[in-house]
Amino acid sequence: MERFTIDESGYTGFDLLNKEQRFQGASATSITDEAASELIREHFPRLKAPELKYQSLARRPGNREHLFNLQRDVLSQWKCITYVCDKRFLLSLMFMDYAVEPFYYERGFDFYEDGQNYSLASLLYRAGPSLFGKAQFDALMASFQRAINKKSLEALNDLVSTVRQMKWQELPEALGPLAYASPECLGAISTPELTTDAAFVVLLSLISRMEVMADGAYRVEHDKSKNLLNYHRLLRQFIEHNNQIEFKETKITSLKFPLKLSEVTQKDSKLSPAVQVADVLIGAAVEASKSLVGGSKSTVETESLMDLYSDDQIIHLFPSLDFKEQKEFRRGTQAGELVDYFAKHFGG
After folding, report:
1. What's the predicted TM-score (pTM) here?
2. Which of 14, 52, 165, 200 is the most buried (most CB within 10 A)?
3. What is the spatial distance between Cα 175 and Cα 140, in angstroms, rounded to a whole number?
4. What span, in angstroms and rounded, lies between the C-alpha atoms of 155 and 106?
5. What SS3 class is residue 85?
6. Are 257 and 241 spatial neighbours (Cβ–Cβ below 8 Å)?
7. Residue-level pLDDT, tens digit, the chain, 348 residues
8. Are 201 and 90 in contact (CB under 8 A)?
9. Dist. CA 70–CA 45, nearest whole Å
10. How does strand 80-86 pair with strand 218-223?
11. Closest to 232 (Cα-Cα) out of 257, 191, 202
């Protein structure tokens, strides 16, 4: 059975506003342990550490070329997919899902049509600090994150109060529902088991590509780290879900159940060269994302690294103000149905 190995980076649980870990992502590759071990020996013949770890190796400029060449060989010879998201933007998208969309749904509007939610989230993310002031915008996102995870009356009231203290009329399409304390939105935010943990979003994106890349039934193997425990639980849920249904996510992606994914196992990364290779892929991708937004002093040649990826090997979730392009890319999306379906069957 074909196997994909997965590793992650940037996981901070419910906290999507973590200043030290702005980006989160994961990589999956079909490389075998034998091939991975051979590549590691080829590119790092003097490696004395018990395992290949991107963050440790990347600190030394002399390792940069070797890391780059390792990724070049993996991406050119093996099935790979890497997903990276800006967690603050993801929180803005969640804001649209639960603090805005229910208001429009109740009034007969398809808020997800042609990616309207994505465009408004991008506008809020980019313009929010200027429209409302950075301190107030940050307070809004913090109170929203707190309300979703605590679900207490105090947290919900604080969220509404925070919005009302802002110049919410500057962007009423996004903040109006909460300014009027929309019961539909407050009810959605209070949904049991709904959290801001991004593991669900990351896995769905990886699975959407692994399902296409896999020739038949396949299994996933990942490290035994604490950060991957939630990923493991979600993978088990996906495997056990046998409903026959398909959703169109974007112009080029869809998700169909039941999945080809049939098994998930854990393995100590020290004993899995393939997991170590996945660690290098996602570590470098997260670092490149930091460099692109000016948040890293790394010497990594970001453009050269990104050129190694073909279009179907990388997925990124970043804001975009090219509304025309996004409308075309997300035309016909079933995002609304997908959100409702997962809320019903996977606890939000």
Report:
1. 0.90
2. 52
3. 10
4. 23
5. strand
6. yes
7. 999 999 999 999 999 999 999 999 999 999 999 999 999 999 999 888 889 999 999 999 899 999 999 999 999 999 999 999 999 999 999 999 999 999 999 999 988 888 889 999 999 999 999 999 999 999 999 999 999 999 999 999 999 999 999 999 999 999 999 999 999 999 999 998 889 999 988 988 899 999 999 999 999 999 888 888 888 988 999 999 999 988 876 666 678 899 999 999 999 999 999 999 999 999 999 999 888 775 555 444 777 888 999 999 999 899 988 767 766 666 666 666 777 777 777 765
8. yes
9. 12
10. unpaired
11. 202
Contacts of 17-21 spanning 24+ positions with Cβ under 8 A: 17/87, 17/88, 17/91, 17/138, 17/141, 17/142, 17/145, 18/87, 21/87
> Rounded to whole angstroms, how far apart are CA atoms 217 and 209?
14
Give the domain 2-87+198-317 fold. Nucleotidyltransferase; domain 5 (3.30.420)
Cα 103 to Cα 108, 159, 173, 189, 282, distances in angstroms? 9, 16, 10, 12, 37
* Tokens 């991975």 -> residue: 36
Contacts of 101 (CB under 8 A, 6+ apart): 111, 112, 117, 188, 336, 339
d(CA 66, CA 58): 10
| Locus of tokens 């190694």 | 308
What is the C-alpha to C-alpha distance for residues 335 and 184, in angstroms, rounded to an integer?
Answer: 18
- Which residues, in sequence order, are CB contacts of 65 under 8 Å at separation 6+? none
Pairing of strands 254-257, 245-248: antiparallel
Residues 6 or more apart in contact with residue 307 via CB below 8 angstroms:
none
Q: What is the residue extent of each domain of the chain?
A: 2-87+198-317, 89-189
**What residues are paired with 25 via a beta bridge?**
9, 84
